[in-house]
Specification:
InterPro entries: Epimerase_deHydtase, NAD(P)-bd_dom_sf, NAD(P)-dependent_oxidoreduct. It comes from Cyanobacterium stanieri LEGE 03274. This is NAD(P)-dependent oxidoreductase. By secondary structure, this protein is of the alpha/beta class. The chain has two domains: 211 residues, Rossmann fold; 74 residues, no CATH class. α1 links the parallel β1 and β2. α3 runs parallel beside α5. The two termini are 35 Å apart. The relative contact order is 0.13.
């Protein structure tokens, strides 16, 4: 197959590129703004093509796009209202529209779990008060169903993403995890925050995407071509205790930190918070129905739980 990939220079992109390069013989096209940022070996085998360009100018590659069998849309813009809309909405829609109904078998589009509620339905607040990144992801998603190839789109919603190594960029979360464990867990361990979340490692995302490239047409109808990428949910208290055990810090007791007390602190100390930040503080439980990871498809998982993730991240 001929596979077109955006966002290959990022953390998730590097894991996906390595998997597609080393585990398949497909013809690969990676669109990147700066090839110097690529740490994977794109000379590993024949059939690997690096296309230098911006997603905003995607129609420069119209001829190639019209021959593509699978498109994997990972690239994103994190901030700036106009920039985010231009990349996260307009450019992705233009790319999908440039694909050929005759040749394109499926499109794997990366959204974010932040635009979903606990029942995997659209979260209205994400479209109204979300950050530039979250709001434009919401706006793009609502447009997908109206596209000519809308029924060939598999939307994936990553939860909290960890990953990175000497040969791969670190995700924002992995980049800060060591700092938190070294500087803040001595204080954090005394508190019990009410909240829960999912996480997934970039390597496990790559495993799922590689599976979808080959088997996307065989997905169970219960998913409706919408997959939340994450392991089983963790509570904040569980996470704190697991991290403390890993770094040999005792947790003798934990002081409950209820939401009403946090709100008092915000008012007393006049802490400035954006509307979305304040919503997240009160929403607290960012959990989803039927999270998907490699185990879902009977594939080995690289970081199936927090213990394993900490072994990989902290000991790296």
């Amino acid at each position: 197959m001929r596979i077109f990939v955006t966002g290959a220079s990022g953390c998730i992109g590097h894991y996906m590129a390595e998997s597609l390069i080393k585990e398949t013989n497909h013809e690969l096209y990676f669109l990147v703004r700066n090839p110097d940022k690529l740490k994977f070996d794109y000379n590993y085998r024949p059939g690997i093509n690096i296309l230098k360009g911006n997603l905003e100018n995607i129609l420069d590659y119209q001829d190639i796009l019209s021959t593509i069998n699978v498109a994997i849309l990972t690239a994103t813009c994190w901030g700036g209202e106009k920039e985010s809309y231009a990349v996260n909405v307009e450019a992705n829609i233009n790319l999908i529209n440039a694909l050929s109904a005759e040749h394109c078998q499926r499109i794997i589009y990366f959204s974010t779990a932040s635009i979903l509620d606990r029942n995997n339905q659209l979260l209205n607040e994400a479209g109204e008060i979300g950050t530039d990144y979250i709001r434009t992801k919401y706006q793009c998603y609502v447009k997908l169903a109206d596209l000519a190839l809308g029924d060939r789109i598999i939307t994936v919603y990553p939860t909290l993403v960890f990953g990175g190594a000497d040969d791969k960029p670190y995700s924002h979360l992995s980049g800060g995890l060591k700092d938190i464990t070294q500087k803040w867990m001595g204080l954090i361990r005394w508190f019990n925050a009410d909240g829960s979340f999912h996480f997934i490692h970039g390597q496990d995302i790559a495993t799922v995407i590689s599976y979808l490239v080959e088997n996307g047409d065989k997905l169970d109808p219960i998913y409706n071509n919408k997959l939340v990428l994450g392991n089983e949910p963790l509570t904040a208290s569980q996470a704190i205790k697991t991290i403390c055990k890993k770094i040999n810090k005792k947790v003798y007791f934990q002081i409950p930190l209820p939401i009403w007390l946090a709100n008092i602190f915000i008012k007393v100390f006049r802490i400035q918070m954006a509307d979305w930040d304040y919503f997240c503080l009160n929403y607290r439980h960012f959990t989803y129905a039927q999270p998907v990871n490699p185990n879902t498809f009977s594939l080995p998982s690289y970081a199936p739980n927090l213990d394993k993730l900490l072994d990989i991240t902290i000991d790296d």
